[in-house]
Amino acid sequence: MILFHWMFDAVADEGYLPKAASTLASGVDDTFMFIWWCCVVFFIALMGAMFYFVVAYKQKDENEKTLDLKGHHTLELVWSIFPSFLLIAMFVMGFQQYVRSTIPPAEALQVSVIGKKWDWTFAYPTLGTFTSRDLVVPNQEPVRLEMISQDVLHSFFVPDFRMKKDVLPNRYTTQWFETTEMYEPQEGDKFYSYKFSFPDAEPKEGSTDLYSSAGQDVKEAVASQCAKEKKNNAALECSTDATQIKVGLHQVFCTEYCGDSHSRMLAKVVVLSPVDFDLWVKSQNNFDPDEKFKGNVSALGEYYAGKAGCTACHSNDGAVKTGPTWKGLWDADRKFADGSTGKANADYIRESILYPQAKVVEGFPAGGMPANLHKAFGQGKEEAGILAIIEYIKTLQ
Amino acid sequence: MSSEHAHHHPHYQAHHFHTMEQQNSSNKLGMWAFLVQELLFFSGLFMAYIATRYFYGETFTEVQERNLLSIPMGFTNTIVLLTSSLTMALAVREAQLIPTLENDESKKHRKNMMVLLVVTAVLACVFLVIKYFEYSHKLHVGTLPGHFYNFAEWPVYKDESTGRILGAIREGGIIDVESAPHIFFSLYFVMTGTHGLHVVIGVGVILWLALRAKRGEFNQENYSAVENVGLYWHLVDLIWIFLFPLMYLVQ
Amino acid sequence: MSSASSSAEHSAGTNYLNAKKGIASWLLTVDHKRIGIMYMITILSFFLIGGLFAMLVRYELLDAAPTLTAKNYNKAFTLHGAIMVFLVLVPAIPASIGNFVLPLMLGAKDVAFPKLNLLSFHIYILGSLFLVYTLAAGGVDTGWTFYTPYSANTDTSVISALAGAFILGFSSILTGLNFIATIHKMRAPGMTWRKLPLFLWAIYATSLIQILATPVIAVTLVLLMVERGLGIGIFDPALGGDPVLFQHFFWFYSHPVVYVMILPAFGVISETITINSRKHIFGYMAIAASSVAIAAVGFIVWGHHMFLSGQSEALGAIFSFITFGVAVPTAIKVCSWIATLYKGSIRWNTVMIYTIAFLWIFSIGGLTGLPLATLATDVHLHDTYFVVAHFHYTMMGGVLFALIAAIHHWWPKMTGKMFNETAGRIFAIFAFISYNLTFIPQFIAGTRGMPRRYHEYLPQFQDMQFLSSIGAFAFGISLFCVLGLWIHSLLKGEKAPQNPWGGLTLEWATATPPIEHNFEEQPICTSGPYDFPEIDVKEPMAAK
């Protein structure tokens, strides 16, 4: 019974449903609560009657006669027809809310969502050519997602928005949302950051927090852009201090089974005030990795590793993910699936990026690494990117 | 009803049935249930056909234009199967005429039935032989299912590194994603192949019936096996009657 | 229900169990009772294996951190699902209990096609060997739903699993076919359709679904096998195919199949609730007709698994509306069963506890289907642990508790022994409580947004998953206790009287255990199967 108590307390604290953060969520929640209360009433009525009868009519004598009641037309009609009205009501409520969710407003901001095993990339074709690993959106403005997969089925799910849709490889699927406010992350909220390993352990001593990057990259980008623009326009209302920038954070899950790292295919929605969002967009458009990481090729490599999705499968701290860890990789001896051996030097790393199937390390799946990841570095920058990755790997001893 | 043990059962009546009438009607019901199930199986394939035709309608008409399926052969096969259905029905009729007591009349009808069964099986084999010619021709020119497709006159683009087939290659190297002959021929082979498998099984069962007839089985009280195999055979024929126009005569 | 003499003519102690001896006499038997027993033993064995995979899954989910590798976890949940659905739940009640009871209840000597029945069993064994091979070959990791394109491309042993399921389908079809012919043609004289016991109505509806729906999954599995092997390009978009087409094909069978699983369970409950309340069923025609209605409507709701798949919204709305339609006959049944209890004479025995447990469990299962049928709420709940809990309540809880009730109920008839009632009651309550503890937290986790098929999860779901795992381990223990109860009964159980529960259906009118050909004389049906108050129960079998 203590266990049940614990469960009820947990529910009482956090409630059944996550916080409602989109304009559509309240409609969905109202429908849910209507159904929930109908179900509770019926369940109590049925189970109440059942337990009462079982107790009240417990057998006293094996030969006692029972009521000869083969049916009761009125009663049967009542319990067939009355619930039908409630069911129709449920259908209508559900249908109405659903239709609202399928028709995006004409002025919605278009964001492209690209899913692949096992990460998400977001692009903003109307705002620039940049891509992002977080879904950054302006608060209280409608956003329309055009989604496509590059391999198998995935599904894009944001519980706080009550929003979900499958992501297909052969055609685009669409969904939309508009946030209502910016929910700051609570103490203990955990969000996946694409830079780090999945939180499969407590954060290590001295390491940066594995869990909530709390939109750190986005905050820093906004702050630095604000600093640039304030030089020309002192009246601009923005904050140059990243710690002062308010963001809302919401978890994104992949919710259509897609293979090994399905549970790790996560992302964050980062909600910014519209002013901050404009600043962020400008910072992304101006973002030149060569400039930002000038003189620091290994940091450029770390940036590229995130951008191209390497971190979805290769950890930097020894954790074994779908692919071998990069920690200690440089110049190590390797044994391959076909029995041959080699050293993990620059040639090997370059070959693995360009021709992933050429040398598969023993114990790892053949065909696990997709081809053409280097295209993410940008046209004309493929070789530079590969060199940067190599430098980054060298730092991970 | 009195005790079962005193009841006289003809040797072809199973122990758990009371009368031949019960046995025969049970057998027939069982066979109809089986045929309904077979129909559902083929409907699944026809659904796949409809879906493929919806996505790649042009491919179907192009197959016609290029004459890649032999209409004369298909038509001949249709006539062959229809005739075999006729001989099968006549065989059932002969079985119904066999009196229960052995005499000249029973021997005559039983012999007719055997002959008709064998003729049915032979016609079915003719069907299979013609199918063999069709299949081997396709093997020769390369109009094969999916990955094995390599018909030179209507090539498809295969990306070697990923294995993706994007569509047919048109003049100028343009890839036509609406054109998917490799999928059409997949459908062709899976549907005609499944049908062909049912024909092969039918041949075996019909010959087994003929063998049982040779041993003196079947009479007008006990011919449900022949009748039910006949029903099966008519279904096989019926499926071909749908398959032929859908595959061969698409406009 | 009527008349038959007892087994006076045969030597005392000769029954179907000891009439012929030796392994061959079992493996080559055409006796439906022996076939039913063999099915039961095999199905329970596979239930154990599927359950071990479930324990592996729950062990992994005890905490947020991974214990197994991702690939192994994915194989564990796939094999758990595939074994449970194809090898256990589909044949569970029809093939084991159905085979044993159906001819007896009809007053027949056997099913219409006894040899076909044996063939069904061997086809089942053959199909299961393919799945065993799949286990040996390293398992399969596609999820039991085999969605493309993942299933068309993964390097695990998919084709052998598909082949196994394909072969198992034929076992299901042939059993259904057999039961349809038997019910139509071999009823005892006087047993009109209106006097047919409800268990048989349920089996009849189930058999209709089996022969109509199973061929479609057969075709789907064949197409997927050929897709993998030859790359035909029907389901894999990389080759020009459509993955949503696969989903349509798959769910066209896989939704009706859940009714194949649950309808026989409903049938069992109709029997056990009447016998143990010694009261006529409330609403006989409603329950009979609703079984057939559920079977029929169950064929046109498959799209409710695909609301978010990218199919058109209009289609989604149609499927949603019709899905609510299938709730009505189900609700009618539950209300009718509860009404049956009113002013009955209710035994508090093991079978009744499982029956009451079923009503609780299935009510939760059915009611939690409503937010899933509703479009807007399904957007939030689809593919989360809410769905997992919903289908475990309906499919697993419903079918399993009814199966255990059925085994306990017909145990004396099958074995000639009684089991220990006190222990039976205790284990039933233990199973019921631990079962709820396993799955209620999953509803909560799912509503909060935890997706399914997750190997690792974010720490906020930890408490619910921990509770669920504890419940699962306890539930597993309770099932082992029940198994122990049965083994104890076989070894040391009291000899059973011919009709320990005072039933009026024909299986209770013959020897316990039955003789090989079931009845000494053809029984005749004169009264209904639930005419309790009208008959002096002390002497139900007046010879006529």
Rg of chain B computed from alpha carbons, rounded to a whole number of angstroms: 24 Å
Tell me what the CATH architecture of chain C is. Up-down Bundle
How do the strands line up in the largest sheet of chain B? 1-2-3
H/E element sequence of chain C: EHHHHHHHHHHHHHHHHE
* CATH topology category name of chain B: Four Helix Bundle (Hemerythrin (Met), subunit A)
The figure for the number of domains of chain B is 1
**Unreliable runs of chain B, pLDDT <50, ≥5 residues?**
1-6
Name of the top-level CATH class of chain B: Mainly Alpha
Q: Total domains of chain C, how many?
A: 1
Structural class of chain C, by secondary structure, is: mainly alpha
Description of the structure:
The complex is a heterotrimer of chains A (397), B (251) and C (544). In chain A, helix 2 (25-56) runs antiparallel to helix 3, helix 4 packs across helix 5 and helix 7 packs across helix 9. Chain A has helices at 2-14, 25-56, 73-102, 216-232, 274-286, 289-292, 297-307, 346-354, 382-394; strands at 109-116, 119-123, 131-132, 135-138, 142-149, 154-158, 163-167, 173-178, 248-254, 267-272, 333-335, 341-343. By secondary structure, chain A is an alpha+beta fold. Chain A has 3 domains: 1-45 and 76-103, no CATH class; 109-196 and 210-286, Immunoglobulin-like, CATH 2.60.40; 289-394, Cytochrome c-like domain (Cytochrome Bc1 Complex, Chain D, domain 2), CATH 1.10.760. Chain A starts with a helix and ends with a helix. The model of chain A is unreliable at 199-212 (pLDDT under 50). Chain A has a 5-stranded mixed β-sheet, with no helix packed on it. With 251 residues, chain B is mainly alpha-helical. Chain B has a single domain (29-146, 181-248), classed as Four Helix Bundle (Hemerythrin (Met), subunit A) (Up-down Bundle). Chain B has a 3-stranded antiparallel β-sheet with strand order 1-2-3, with no helix packed on it. In chain B, helix 3 (71-96) runs antiparallel to helix 6, helix 4 (104-141) packs antiparallel against helix 5 (181-214) and helix 5 (181-214) runs antiparallel to helix 6 (224-248). Residues 1-6 of chain B have low confidence and may be disordered. Chain C has helices at 23-27, 32-60, 70-89, 92-106, 114-136, 150-153, 158-185, 198-230, 243-275, 284-297, 313-341, 350-373, 375-381, 385-415, 421-447, 462-492, and strands spanning 2-3, 524-525. Chain C has a single domain, classed as Up-down Bundle (Cytochrome C Oxidase, Chain A). The radius of gyration of chain C is 23 Å and the shape is globular. In chain C, helix 2 runs antiparallel to helix 3 (70-89). With 544 residues, chain C is an all-alpha fold. A two-stranded antiparallel sheet of chain C has the order 1-2. The termini of chain C are close together. Chains in contact: A-C, B-C. Chains B and C meet through helix 1, strand 2 and helix 5 of B and helix 7 and helix 8 of C.
